[in-house]
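Weekly puzzle thread! Below is a chain. First person to post its structure in token form gets bragging rights.
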Amino acid sequence: MKRRDFIRLAMIAGGAVAISPLFSPLFNYMGYYYNELRVISKNYLVANNTAGLQGFPKYRIANIKDIQSSNCPVYFFAYPLTNEPCFIVDFSKLNNQTNVEFKNPYFGQFAINSKFPTIKGVGPKGSLCAFSAICVHLGCQLPAQVLTNSPNLPGLNPASTILHCPCHGSMYKLDEGGIVVGGPAPRPLPIVFLEYDNTTGDIYAIGTNAPYFSKTRPTSNLIYDPDYSYQIPSNPACTSG
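Winning reply:
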């Protein structure tokens, strides 16, 4: 190898080492390495699901007695991974709404939504719906258990059904499908599809209408969780804010 070529190669190698730290944020922004996560995610799903992240398991998240035993209008659960917080909201307790029905904000996007042009509440009063508890802006955990007397305060305001993120002020209106009504969130809050067994009272999660906050690499995502300390609050979880 000629000296000139050696120097050129050394400069290229040195430059690559120098800028390598810049690639991690870029990959984080672009999303997760899907093929690798698809394999390892099976170990972290709340229920056995051979499709990995390509499918959603039908998973029992509660019984209607769990919801009825408390005055708290929200009930937390994990889905589809063991540390992805979600919550059921009982609109009959939140603001006296029954037989809830609203448009699916993601209808026309993602194959699963072809079956759900509208979202209907389940349960004896048709009042139970479920949402992700992760803000789609930058991934902060939403304090749905904190009931507030104003939609301008972080937490969930029963009168308006607005869920206000404490990090950067994103605001989601739950009784309209989690649409964004304030702040920087780029899209509606994902909904968890529910199925109710009238005989047993069991409530199942059967899928979601959109991705949650984007996962990044396997070493930096919701599975390993070094960036965000997501927790599933113990039920009943309600506090005043």
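Puzzle host: Confirmed. Bonus trivia for everyone else. The two ends are 70 Å apart (CA to CA).
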